[in-house]
Every structure is written in C-alpha cells, then in structure tokens.
Write a structure and sequence with these properties.
1 helix; 57 strands; Immunoglobulin-like; five-stranded mixed sheet; mainly beta; globular; 51% strand; five-stranded antiparallel sheet
C-alpha cells in the first residue's frame, strides 16, 4: 500500500471560477474528523466491512482502528506506530518503534484482536509491514545496516526473504488472497522493476518505456497497479512517472489529471484504482480510475462545496468502492470516507426560470395578474439504471398544470433517460389574481410581506420502482414599492493584471430601508477595454445564482457579489466606477476607494498587490485623539516586483501627517525602516508574498467625520510609478 505525497493547494487571495464542476457528482465525502488527535489524522486503508485504519498525531505518530462506531489506538511495540494495511478480518500491519523514546528502529507488526505481534527483522536492523491478505499473511521489507533492503513474507508462523530479480534490493508492498505479492526489485542490470511473486518465482512486469517501475497494490485477479517512468516527456530531465494497470499481459498507462506525474495507492477486485495525480495547474489531487477514465475525486464529490479545502492523500478502496484518505478542512487534516451515491431520480422545478424553493426566497418571481407563467421541470437520472419514457411520470400538484416533455431535450432521440441524462418538461398558464385565489389553488404567506404566494410541487415517479423526487416553486403578484437608496462596498479596491487574465473583486450591497429592493445588480459606469461579468455569492463567498443576473435584497438585508474584468488590451490605472442599482431604488453613491475598483492592465506579467486595511476598532475608521494607527496586510498575486508604498489623503487636504514602515507580520514591529518614516517605503515583493505595513497618523487640527471624502489612501507603485495596488481607510478626530 503506497502512502502518496502530500498535496498542494492554491494559496492566492483571489482563487475561484465562474464555471461549474466538470463531472457529475457520484461520490459523497464524509468527514470522519481527526479521531484521537487534536492536530490531525490520515486514513490509510479500508476493508470490505468499512473498517478503517490509519495514523494520528498525539504528539508522536500512533495508529488507530475505526470499526464504524468506535475508534481505538492499536498500541505500540514501544514508540511511534504506523499502520498501513488491513484485511477483511480487521488484522492490521505496519511498523512500530521498539524504542522507549518513540523513535528507534521500527519493526513490522501484525495486529490481531487487541494484540500486536512483533514480526522481527530477520537478520536486519529494522522492518516494515506493507500488505496483508485475509489469511493473515504479511509482506513488507527489512533493512540491513548497509542500507540494503529485502522483501519478506510472513505466513503466520515464519518470516522469510522472498528474494530479488537478481539485484541487491527488493521491497514487498501488497499481497492478495491467493498469496501473490507485488513490490519492487533491482534487476541484474540495476534497474528497478515491479514484480509479481507467486510463492516460488518472482516475475518482472516491465515498464511504460522508462527505466524504472514499481508495484504498489495487487487484487485477487492478479491485476497490479504501480508507477512507471516514461521514455520521454515535456522535460527531458524529468520524463514523468505515471500510474499503470497491469492485467497479466500488458501494462496500461493510466495517464494523469493533466499534470506530469501520477501514482496509485490501491486497487480493488473490480479493477478500480485510487491514487494521486498532478493537475494541469500543478496541484496534486486524489483520483479514482474506473472504466478506463481517471477522475478527480474532489470534483466528483463537489468536496469544496461541502466544507473541504482540498483532498491531498488517499489510502485505500474496498470492493464496494468506498474510499478512505485525507483532506483539509480549515487547514486541519481530517480523514474522509468517500462513498458511492445511491441511485436516485431528481427533479428541479422552476417558475419563470427561478428556483423559488421557499415562499420568502429572494428569487421568487413577482408576476402581474394575466401574464404568462412558465414552469420548467428538469428531470435528471444521476444513477446507473436507464428508464424508458413510459416509466417516467411527471406531475404537478396544482389543478390544470400539466407538464409536457420537450422531446428536443432527449439526447439521441431514443426516449431513454440514460444515466446522467436530463429531460425538460414544461407547463404554462396565466398568472392568477392571488388576492382571491380560485378554489383548489394552494397559496401560502410569502414574498417577505405575507402576501398570498402561489405554491405548486413538481413530482417525478419511476413507475413500479418506488423511486420519486419532488421540488417546490412559488410566485406572487407584483407590488412595486420604492425602496431606500442602497449602499455598497468593494474589496479589494484595486487589481493589476496582464491582458487576458481575470481581475476579480468582491462587493456587498446593503438595503438599509424597510422595503424589499428588487433586481439589484452591478454595472460598470466607467468604460474600459475589458469583458465584464458578475454573480451573487453566499456568506462564505461561494458562487450562487446565475452569471449577470440581478436579485432581490430583503428589507434591512444585504447581498454579496463577485465581479470580474478580463482586459482585452493594455490600459493605465483607472478608478472604475460601478453602478449598484435596483429597479425600485436610486443607485448607491459612488465613493472612490470604497466602492470603486482601481484597475490597470499590461501586456506582460506585473505585480498585483491585493491590500486590506485594518483599524483598531475594526470598522475601517482611524480615530484621532492626537494620534491614530492602522495596518495594511497584502498579498502579491501577480509577478515579483520592486514596490514603493506611500500614503496620502487623495484630493482632500487634511490637517494631519502620516508616517509608515514595513512590519514583521508576527510581531507588528517596524523592520523597513525600523523607525516610521514620512517618506515612501520601497521594498521587493515576490509572487505570493504577504508583507505587512503600519501607518501612524498625527492630527494637527480637527478632521470632521466625512468617510466619503476624508480618507487616507495607501498606494503601491512599481518602479515606473504605475499603481499596482491600493486600499483606504476613513479618518476623523474624536470629539
């Protein structure tokens, strides 16, 4: 069983996309937590009963056994313990230090029912258990003082060396229920090769054309997965290594998720393989290889929408397809269990294109009496069983509403709802006067003000299968009342990008009044040579809604957005003014530095300093008695560059002086220079670097509270004087 390398993750400040996942969701990811640790745990193997083994940190490495209900430490031979593999009977192998200080030479072990058996080291100094079958046979390797290592097998009574392919070293990685072993060995020509050992003979498996290969896991059919180097690649000095599947005759290259390298961790008896692969962006991801296709497990499970930062390690897959591994949640290592989603039928119903699931949802359409209402019912088969048209029945709960299949939505025109296929049904009617609804029509209080709101439920049934799904939508009659003028803010307040790259920022629009603000969106007022788009987000800045689609904002509520400019040509820095407007309000007042975006585009790579100001009161206001202070944190999401940092009061002439310095992010102490200076501070900022700065403000007279005009602007300029980042705070004198 191979323990993959730890994964990488995007660490830039602005890292999201306006697209949807590339795969249908077929797995669900369950967070098993950190078990006995407060700092993190890893999942290494899962058996057919769903029991899991792995390691946790407390503070040294220890091994655990989880039976689906309870978790227990499996003990130790004296020090730290690592479990690697587990069979269907719950027997576990791995290695454990025999030293009381916890870090001495490890010995392979067999854990069985609460007892840990030391398997010894043959005539070596240390040993490692790596694979175990249902008979309790263990394979691994042991080391001599010289560094030479040899594969061994333990048969329940004795432990013995199984030899090599003619070279000096060999390792044992896995064993199936027929006693076949796979691992890696040096040949007589000093090349590493994967092998299968059948109890008597060790057979080399070849390679994918490169000079090395290794065996990682073997299933009961004798299929082997491992890694092999390639004969050549995009970089001659690094031809790459790929995961493979060996089926007894040929070695098949499994490819990658778009990057250079990939490697497996386990294979089940159905030939499904899990492992790791670099993506085209250089990030390491967990993959599932099945039916000839390598798929990103995080994308298949939509893991980032369920609280996971990313998945970075995978340990095993059982014969039911359950997968165990490790991912990050808020920076902490958690064990995950990935399970196949049970087959279901799904319906998504919309009224005039809006989901409107709840009567008070912000997207409930308001329709004038007599206008046409269109309901759409999108029926999707997310499972593995196809259904004929006769088996699919779509109905509506309201009298007189009859969904009809749009045959153009049937892929291939075969009237078969295949796995992953969607059909669209539609129904239309005139909007009713809901103040006096007809008999039999269901209305509920909604649309924020308790008015009668039409409710109907779309339902899909699979005839004779007992499988169904329902979805509700609503509409109410249009009542347009004027609302108060919204207020808005933008973060970050500047972006500096190369032509063709996307410059993104977040915005928040607040409805301060007591009336709903309808169809609120964001439109650029300043013309720049760039494509523009915006979309609503939730409280976690995750994308929701539809691109370039306005939404309603409840009275006293707020809505967050993300917007993006993609420059099509170079242009100098410009404060792009934005219209934050709703159909029943005046636009929000424009305040430079508060709800504008300073945007610049260049033909080549440039620094892009994303800066955020922080004041002691946390409200973006520097309060002066005689002096005040604020800090600015930055990240350079662009290319490296020499940057000059300065502060000014913009077009306002204010009675104050400002000194500044670069600071130690950990302590806040001035380091560049060590004493605050009135002049600008020049520093080199690398890509993804996160320097911090402190600003000290001294008032010489009263500064009135006027946050739209009385502001301090912090500017980050390159050697040519071009602004590559900015932020601002309000300033006032306390009375």
């Amino acid at each position: 069983m191979k323990i993959p390398l730890l994964g990488l993750v995007c660490a830039s400040a602005i890292c999201f996309t306006l697209s949807t996942p590339a795969y249908d969701v077929k797995y669900t990811i369950i967070d098993l937590g950190t078990f006995l640790s407060t700092t993190g745990a890893l999942g290494h193997d899962i058996n057919d009963s769903g029991h899991i083994t792995g390691i946790y940190y407390n503070p040294i490495t220890r091994a655990y056994y989880y039976d689906g209900n309870m978790v227990q430490d499996i003990g130790t031979l004296g020090g730290q313990t690592v479990s690697i593999a587990m069979n269907s009977n719950g027997q576990i192998t791995g290695d454990s230090s025999t030293s009381p200080d916890g870090y001495g030479d490890p010995h392979a072990f067999l854990y069985d029912g609460g007892t840990m058996l030391d398997l010894g080291t043959l005539d070596g100094v240390r040993s490692y258990g790596r694979g175990i079958n249902d008979s309790g046979q263990v394979v691994g390797h042991y080391y001599f003082d010289s560094g030479i290592y040899r594969a061994f097998i333990y048969d329940g009574n004795t432990i013995r060396d199984i030899g090599t392919l003619g070279g000096a070293t060999s390792s044992g990685q896995d064993i199936n229920n027929s006693g076949q072993v796979t691992g890696t060995s040096l040949t007589t020509s000093d090349e590493y090769r994967a092998y299968i050992y059948d109890g008597n003979t060790m057979q080399a498996l070849g390679s994918l054309g490169g000079n090395t290969s290794s065996g990682v896991a073997i299933n009961d059919s004798g299929q082997v997965t491992g890694q092999s180097s390639l004969p050549q690649g995009p970089f001659p000095e690094d031809p790459g290594i790929h995961a493979y599947l060996y089926d007894g005759d040929t070695m098949q290259d499994l490819g990658t998720l778009g990057g250079i390298d990939s490697g497996p961790a386990d294979i089940n008896n159905k030939g499904a393989i899990v492992g790791w692969s670099y993506t085209s962006s250089g990030q390491e991801a967990v993959f599932l290889y099945e039916n000839g296709v390598m798929m990103d497990l995080c994308v298949m499970s939509d893991c980032t929408s369920h609280g996971w930062d990313y998945l970075f390690q995978v340990g095993g897959i059982n014969n039911s397809g359950d997968i165990v591994g490790t991912g990050s949640i808020n920076g902490e290592w958690h064990v995950f269990l990935a399970q196949v989603v049970s087959p279901v039928i799904d319906i998504e119903k919309r009224t005039n294109g809006k989901q409107a699931d709840g009567p008070n949802d912000s997207d409930v359409p308001r329709i004038v009496q007599g206008e046409i209402v269109t309901w759409t019912y999108e029926v999707t088969n997310p499972g593995e069983v196809a259904f004929s048209e006769a088996e699919v029945s779509v109905t509506d709960s309201q009298p007189g509403v009859t969904p009809v299949l749009d045959t153009n939505s049937d892929d291939g025109g075969d009237m078969i709802l295949s796995p992953s296929e969607s059909w669209t049904y539609t129904a239309t009617a005139q909007a009713l006067d809901l103040t006096t609804p007809p008999e039999g029509v269901t209305v509920v209080p909604g649309c924020y003000d308790g008015r009668n709101t039409y409710k109907n439920i779309g339902r899909v049934d699979i005839t004779g299968a007992g499988v169904f799904d329902e979805d509700t939508s609503h509409y109410c009659n249009e009542i347009i009342l004027p609302a108060d003028t919204p207020v808005a803010s933008v973060l970050p307040s500047s972006r500096s990008v190369q032509v063709g790259n996307v410059a993104t920022a977040f915005a928040t629009m607040i409805n301060p009044g007591s009336t709903i603000a309808t169809d609120c969106g964001i439109t650029p007022l300043t013309s720049v040579q760039a494509n523009y788009a915006y979309q609503t987000t939730d409280a976690n800045n995750e994308l929701i809604g539809t691109v370039d689609t306005p939404v309603d904002i409840a009275a006293g509520g707020n809505q967050s957005y993300v917007f993006a400019f993609t420059p099509t040509a170079s242009f100098s820095p410009v404060d792009v003014q934005l219209s934050f407007d709703c159909t029943n309000t005046d636009p929000a007042a424009v305040t430079v530095g508060l709800n504008t975006l300073l945007l610049v585009a260049d033909s080549g790579p440039v620094p892009d300093i994303v800066a955020l100001g922080a004041t002691p009161t946390g409200d973006g206001i520097v309060n002066l008695s005689s002096t005040g202070v604020f800090a600015v944190a930055t990240v350079n999401v662009g290319s490296p560059g020499t940057i000059t940092v300065s502060a000014d009061t913009g077009s306002a002439s204010l009675p104050l002086s400002i000194t500044l310095c670069g600071t130690n992010p950990a302590t806040g102490a001035c380091i560049n220079p060590t004493v605050p200076t009135l002049g600008p501070v020049t520093t080199s900022i690398a890509g993804n670097a996160t320097p911090t700065f402190a600003f000290f403000v001294t008032g010489t007279d009263t500064v009135p509270f006027d946050p739209a005009n009385n502001r301090i602007f912090v500017r980050f300029k390159d050697a040519s004087g071009v602004t590559r980042g900015s932020t601002s705070v309000a300033v006032r004198t306390l009375e």
